[in-house]
Design goal:
The chain is of the alpha/beta class. The protein has 14 helices and ten strands. The longest helix is centred in the middle third of the chain and has 18 residues. The radius of gyration is 19 Å and the shape is globular. Bound molecules: 6-O-phosphono-beta-D-fructofuranose. InterPro entries: GlmS/AgaS_SIS, SIS_dom, SIS_dom_sf.
């Protein structure tokens, strides 16, 4: 049984910059994926935030011409036999992920616990090196999963590695400047639910942000892709005190913002200024979308920690 604790969760968040720098040092000297040879197809398996991170990585592999998918570990069926299967689980204990690999003879585990049941059954293990998350919420491990999957994408496609040190600086900048932005952001997001919105290339930011509000303070929240928003979430703006946590960068930003303005919804923008936002939370290096991807969920995580500790009243 995992215990979750809001003060320890906040301490886990405060440890992000040091944890990122230690990971950057490690990856500078060793490629954790060097054992992976050329492959035609990559299948990621996972649940929750592990799958959110995988979705983005699979998309990047497809954009580079590879066959890749991020599958719910709970899905029926098994990956085609000529696939590199990467089962992702921070704890290495999610039942659905263990079930998904139960009859696979060959798979790689990406996990924060090298002694976990998942790692014990794997052909090879890549460690997240996120340290113990004492608060019981996957936060640093989510960030490290993104980075390690980026390292796999670089290994397979030759793409630029993740800007880890810049993400550490951006994270530190948001943490130290909390008094400037956090109280106002917390006030603005109080309504009938928090709805993070992000471009498909950074969809994990919306989904993980929403998860933080559900898992911590147990506030209704759901993440949405910016273009899709006008087809699925716009409807809620009529009936709810809708609070949008907006991650700019989609070519459909204006379309969504137009509706939000018309319906009088409250918008908090992260990492960029957008027209009509009640607040724009900027951070160091936020002109780089890959730094944003690795950093921007911290806004939701810190608000969620604050509400969880102090309540939302
Ligand atoms: O990566 P894991 O350990 O399999 O966890 C999957 C999901 O389960 C949770 O721990 C909650 O049950 C989430 O925080 C996480 O996203």
């Amino acid at each position: 049984m995992i215990t979750i604790d809001p003060a320890l969760f906040r301490a886990d968040l405060e440890a992000k910059p040091a944890s990122l720098r230690a990971l950057a040092d490690r990856l500078a000297t060793r490629n954790p994926w060097e054992f992976v040879g050329p492959t035609r197809r990559v299948i990621f398996l996972g649940m929750g935030s592990s799958r959110y991170a995988a979705q983005v990585a699979a998309r990047r592999l497809r954009a580079a011409g590879m066959d890749a998918a991020a599958e719910y570990a709970s899905a029926e069926g098994r990956p085609p036999s000529d696939s590199l299967v990467v089962a992702i689980s921070a704890t290495g204990k999610s039942q659905e992920t263990l079930d998904a690999i139960s009859d696979l003879s060959d798979f790689v585990a990406l996990t924060n616990d090298p002694d976990s049941p998942l790692a014990r059954r794997a052909t090879a293990t890549v460690e997240m090196h996120a340290g113990a998350e004492e608060g019981g919420v996957a936060c640093r491990s989510f960030q490290h999963t993104q980075i390690l999957l980026d390292a796999l994408v670089s290994h397979l496609t030759g793409s630029e590695p993740a800007p880890i040190r810049r993400a550490a600086e951006a994270t530190e900048n948001l943490l130290t400047r909390r008094p400037e932005w956090l109280p106002r952001c917390g006030d603005l997001l109080k309504g009938d639910g928090v709805f993070p919105i992000a471009p498909v290339e950074r969809l994990s930011s919306a989904l993980q942000s929403a998860l933080m509000f559900r898992e911590g303070p147990r506030v209704p929240a759901d993440g949405c892709e910016t273009g899709d928003w006008s087809h699925v979430d716009v409807y809620l703006t009529k009936t709810l005190r809708y609070r949008a946590l907006f991650f700019p960068g989609s070519r459909y930003d204006d379309q969504a913002l137009g509706w939000l303005r018309e319906r009088g919804s409250t918008v908090v923008a992260v990492g960029g200024d957008v027209p009509g936002a009640a607040q724009a939370i900027r951070f160091r290096h936020d002109d780089d979308s890959r730094v944003r991807l690795l950093t921007e969920t911290l806004v939701a995580e810190l608000v969620a920690a604050d509400w969880w500790i102090h309540g939302t009243a």
